[in-house]
Design a protein that fits this description.
CATH topology of the largest domain: TIM Barrel
Radius of gyration: 20 Å
Protein name: Muconate cycloisomerase family protein
Pathway: Aromatic compound metabolism
Number of helices: 13
Cofactor: Mn(2+)
CATH architecture of the largest domain: Alpha-Beta Barrel
Largest sheet: 7 strands, parallel
Keywords: Aromatic hydrocarbons catabolism, Isomerase, Manganese, Metal-binding
Order of helices and strands: EEEHHHHEEHEHEHEHEHEHHEHEEH
CATH superfamily of the largest domain: Enolase-like C-terminal domain
Organism: Aquipseudomonas guryensis
Strand content: 15-25%
Shape: globular
Helix content: 25-40%
């Protein structure tokens, strides 16, 4: 059989409205911006991928604009003419020629997997070793910053059977104010829901020592990235003394970071994000490191749309255990879609398609409407 070559790679920036402002420690989102990637192959098939970050450069080193530029000018041309079925060789070629750029690489790897799945008639999860579950429990982030609104929103989600895990974005306000906010929500929800917090590196170690103790004593199940990723020794100390498990998120910007964190004992839970590892295949390498070290797993998100969310999900459904579930709620934060059929959320979980590739088809008309001109 002759090789099927990559004929073209393109990227388009898409701006989509959200249901409400989404407040994080470092940024408040008023909309979400996706980079949609299309890889066309010589057999006529097309793979789609997505590279999405949060708040321009507020979160990390890549922005939608830099992702598109680097794909158009550097990464895409390296793939043109390569064997589209040999995803390993294609990604190694990118890694050799370009350092970092994990968000861009993740979208490209997702697109290559989508095309190969369509070619073979297999879901991406089967290309990644085979799924062991057909759904993933999904957390919801309460990020209005208003205690009364957040409680009402959580109650609605419980009534709808859409979410029973809630994560609170804190770290932008004084610590005492944040603690009061979180404890009030946990008291209102009680044992009906798991309540967790994400500090997004918002505290220094002196603040985190007391705050983690208070949160753990008041029934908070998980504390995500309370201090700077640079303060590795502080992360180790907090992980040793906090009554609630500490989860590493921003600390993991590569597979190598995961190995270093595990070796140091800096966290008892890892947040898995395909964008920060360089793709679905890469994030599974981080998961293997965590499992080998006895570290629990959580399926994280960069608040991707449908394409990036399902690319993550296809990797996560192959994992032996996701102790802390996932937060793949990105499509639910958007008021508009650019695919013909949106992902299905039911009974507190994202339901996984078994159709070939990622299981999605672009809505060309809506994509063109929301594409940045």
């Amino acid at each position: 059989m002759s090789q099927v070559l990559i004929e073209s790679v393109s990227a388009v920036i898409v701006d989509l409205p959200t249901i409400r402002p989404h407040k994080l420690a470092m940024h408040t989102m008023q909309q979400q911006t996706l980079v949609v990637i299309r890889v066309r192959c010589s057999d006529g098939l097309e793979g789609i991928g997505e590279s999405t970050t949060i708040g321009g450069l507020a979160y990390g080193n890549e922005s939608p604009e830099s992702i598109k530029q680097n794909i158009d000018s550097h990464l895409g041309p390296l793939l043109v003419g390569q064997d589209s079925a040999n995803i390993n060789a294609a990604m190694l070629r990118l890694d050799k020629a370009a350092k970092g750029n994990t968000f861009a690489k993740s979208g490209l790897e997702s697109a290559l997997l989508d095309a190969q799945g369509k070619r073979l008639g297999l879901a991406v999860s089967e290309l990644l070793g085979g799924r062991v579950r057909d759904s993933l429990e999904v957390a919801w982030t309460l990020a209005s910053g208003d205690t009364t609104k957040d409680i009402a929103e959580a109650e609605q989600m419980l009534d709808l059977r859409r979410h029973r895990i809630f994560k609170l974005k804190i770290g932008a306000n004084p610590v005492s104010q944040d603690l009061k906010h979180v404890i009030a929500i946990k008291q209102a929800l009680g044992e009906r829901a798991s309540v967790r917090v994400d500090v997004n590196q918002g505290w220094d170690e002196s603040q985190a020592i007391r705050a983690c103790q208070v949160l753990g004593d008041n029934g908070i199940d998980l504390i995500e990235q309370p201090i700077s990723r640079i303060n590795r020794a502080g992360q180790v100390r907090l992980n040793q003394r906090s009554p609630a498990p500490i989860m590493a998120d921003e600390s993991i910007e590569s597979v190598e970071d995961a190995f270093s964190l595990a070796a140091d004992g800096a966290a008892s839970v890892f947040a898995l994000k395909i964008a920060k590892n360089g793709g679905p295949r890469a994030v599974l390498r981080t998961a293997q490191i965590a499992e080998s070290a006895g570290i629990a797993l959580y399926g994280g998100t960069m608040l991707e749309g449908a394409i990036g969310t399902l690319a993550s999900a296809h990797a996560f459904v192959t994992l032996r255990q996701l102790t802390w579930g996932t937060e793949l709620f990105g499509p639910l934060l958007l008021t508009e879609e650019i695919v013909t059929e949106a992902p299905v959320y039911r009974d507190f979980a994202l339901q996984m398609p078994r159709t070939p590739g990622l299981g999605l088809t672009l809505d060309e008309e809506r994509l063109a409407f929301f594409a940045r001109k």
